[in-house]
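Hi U.,

Before I forget, here's the chain from the pilot set. I'm dumping it here mostly so it's searchable later in email.
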Amino acid sequence: MGRILCVVNQKGGVGKTTTAVNLAAALSIAEQSCLLLDMDPQCNATSSLGQEPTNGHALVSDMSIAESIVQTRQPGLSLLPGSRTFQDIDLLATSDDQQSMRVRKHLDSVLEEYDFVLIDCPPSVGELTQTALAASTEVLMPIQCEYFAMEGLTQLIKTIRKVIVATDGRLTFGGILLTMYDPGLELTREVDQEVREFFGDIVFESVVPRDVSLSEAPSHGKSVFQYAPRSRGAFAYTQLCMEVLQRD
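Structure:
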């Protein structure tokens, strides 16, 4: 069965969408069939790959999601575009068990065709994120190397543990990723040490540096591998991809 990775953090601006898009691209380059699912109402993952948001999200419709999947400019990477429609957002965010099971059933229906499904979530621990977590098999948390890196993580981890119990262990901790990493800053080194001491082996060895290429690529509708394949950002997500594959 394929792996469903939910990329989540309750804070914005930590590299969540950047990680979802570029890890998905790296996996496709590594010849892993990959689907990126945009569940953030901002639809940044969708636009980052040069696609338009849909008028209706496939996860809340009765039709097969296979009909709504589009191919991106990144060879081998498929996308289920996001929707900014308020009605769809409300339906996806409902805490109703029936709706959560519908989302999981939709995803499970395509798992045979993909090695990986990556879900880009909104920056919150609300019902929409919990719906995504309940449909996933692993959770990946990007953490920015800043002073407040650990702030709010307790609430997020409580939410994740709640979903793990509710799904009978279907969901597991996939890993924590340090982003916007600058080894020349003392603060970065302090955050690195604190996070690794607290979380241990769950933290990826790979780190994502500050790299302008990662910021510029979405404006061109491309992954960093298409926009700047020799950049530090591309190298970092290649390393992360290798770690993710090794943790299978």
